[in-house]
């Protein structure tokens, strides 16, 4: 790309490293993976944590059904294969976001242990699995999107918790029992854990 | 997620908007889409622009073959269908990055006008198409990865410029003739254009 042509010199571009981006942002690029039943509070908690971090000057981004299912993964359905591919792509994208230095929060049911562990294998110690735990009855009573009602009526098949399995995390970094603590308490616990893990400085 | 159960109150989470992230970062979330033949200088230029912007305190991220083909798109080959799906997914990911407020630079041959225009349709006025233009002979002489040699030997099929077409952009925001200007000149032109478009303030 220089004016002299026909040399054998390979020109190496400057590259910005993840560490340099993290220094700029004064934070680590990490993935907070929220998993749990529909209605267990994943999305609400992820967004509240992001909001609180943003107030502290941190760059956050939430990946959820709203911005993934209608875009990147709109070609995928809900068969076991498609669910696995869904989580695989989300994991790869979350890994890119973390590499960019962004505190990345994902809010997907992600019912299979193997799929979640794939993301952990990409991120290693930059991965926090947060299990939003609530009894099925509570989630079904909340039913924020009316999905349990449809599942019970047979209008939705293979709905997690009804006629499809949910595999709880075995060693999550945090368990949040969303029917037993306030959202403020939950948010504070997540952020405290992030501080302990050194995620909130570059 | 609050302590009171069994109410009909839908609790709306705070959400951080793109505008709020852009204010935090003092930049716009945009996509700089570099397109051109293999060896035309896409990746080199993208990385140099990112480096210069990083020195000015801007958050950038480069999407290229290195971080996409081995991860998100490792299931895709080089048939026309797979090439289209490759660029579709990259476009969706670039759109998410721009939504996060990141100055996103993509460096892919992206030979088809239709595929590039899909990304433009997602990003609208947050999309800068940059055509790194160099004669095939120059690119082939540079041959930084030895790919032209392999394509000429028939070891790689459907190689853009040899036995697969490249459709030049019709109205790119910038054309950079990488055999006619220094990389410093090219970088400055890209950044000047970004300033004109208001991308470098939140």
Q: Could you outline the blueprint of secondary structure elements for this entry?
A:
The structure is a homodimer of 202-residue chains.
Chain A: H1 18-25, E1 30-35, H2 42-55, E2 60-64, H3 65-68, H4 80-99, E3 103-107, H5 113-123, E4 127-133, H6 136-142, H7 147-152, E5 174-177, H8 183-196
Parallel strand pairs in A: 1-3, 1-4, 2-3, 4-5
The outline of chain A comes out as globular
Helix content of chain A: 40-55%
Task: Look at the structure and give the mean pLDDT of chain A.
Answer: 93
- Uncertain spans of chain A: 1-9
Per CATH, the superfamily of chain A is P-loop containing nucleotide triphosphate hydrolases
Looking at the structure, the CATH topology of chain A is Rossmann fold
Rg of chain A, nearest Å = 19 Å
What does this structure look like?
Chain A has helices at 18-25, 42-55, 65-68, 80-99, 113-123, 136-142, 147-152, 183-196; strands at residues 30-35, 60-64, 103-107, 127-133, 174-177. The first copy, chain A, has 202 residues and is α/β, with parallel strands linked by helices. Chain A has a single domain, classed as P-loop containing nucleotide triphosphate hydrolases (Rossmann fold). In chain A, strands 2-3-1-4-5 form a 5-stranded parallel β-sheet, with helices on both faces. The radius of gyration of chain A is 19 Å and the shape is globular.
In short:
Two copies of one chain form a homodimer. Chain A has helices at residues 18-25, 42-55, 65-68, 80-99, 113-123, 136-142, 147-152, 183-196, and strands at residues 30-35, 60-64, 103-107, 127-133, 174-177.
